[in-house]
# Entry
Amino acid sequence: MANLGGTITLGGAVTVNRMGYGAMRLTGPGIIGPPRDRDEARRVLQRAVALGVTFIDTADSYGPHVNEEIIAEALHPYPPGLVIATKSGFARPGPHQWKMNGRPAHLRAGCEGSLKRLRVDRIDLFQLHRIDPEVPEEDQFGLLADLQREGKIRLIGLSEVPVAAIERARRTLPIVSVQNRYNVTDRASDPVVDYCEREGMAFLPWYPLGAGALQDTGGLERVAAKHGATAMQVALAWLLERPPAMLVIPGTSKVAHLEENVAAAAVRLDEQDVRNLDRVSTPG
# Structure
């Protein structure tokens, strides 16, 4: 089912299905520690791959470290074609607490730790979780370039950045993807989506379902009823109807919810559906 969303090629190097999976929820409360049901977490990952998901998004800060460890437990040795993207750039002092840390030593340690936890020799896509305003940008970008030259990372992405920051990074780095908060009711990153489309980069919307609590004005429910789908499936289908640059990464900790999300790739919205959903937008 996942391949019904079409495919996208990252940096001209690897091609994945546009319906991916975001693994962040496979942790404990507050994105700290192990999940309550580690066996179910492994089943979610295995089922995702069985359904055709070929792109999994994680980060060293999810747990921290726990998320990457579970991915390796569930899926290593990895099937051919599976791309695992990870991120570094946050410290985690406690539940729901995120402290930016873009110091080169921290980013390098994050990368090398991810290599060990994921049990790989090279990370397919390594993303700077945030550009730390307390650290010179050239130091952060330079470290990423070093890691790529050393063969520890293949492709480089950014997260939660405006167009101007992407352009600054691209002066020294081959950026292939951007991951910003974006969903049917939160479109502040529309300019970044458009930029990624023009420049042949992938856009990964995080929070694509608003943690299952999108603020709906009724448009989602009406379109869902028309298609015999759920409102959340329609929200994902809308993302897949956006530019081909979109690589969707909904997350969940339950197999049943995963299957519902992946099935959204089969929901076909018509032009009227898209116009109705466009009216759901919250100004960014």
Q: What stands out?
A: Residues 112 and 152 are 8 Å apart (CA to CA).
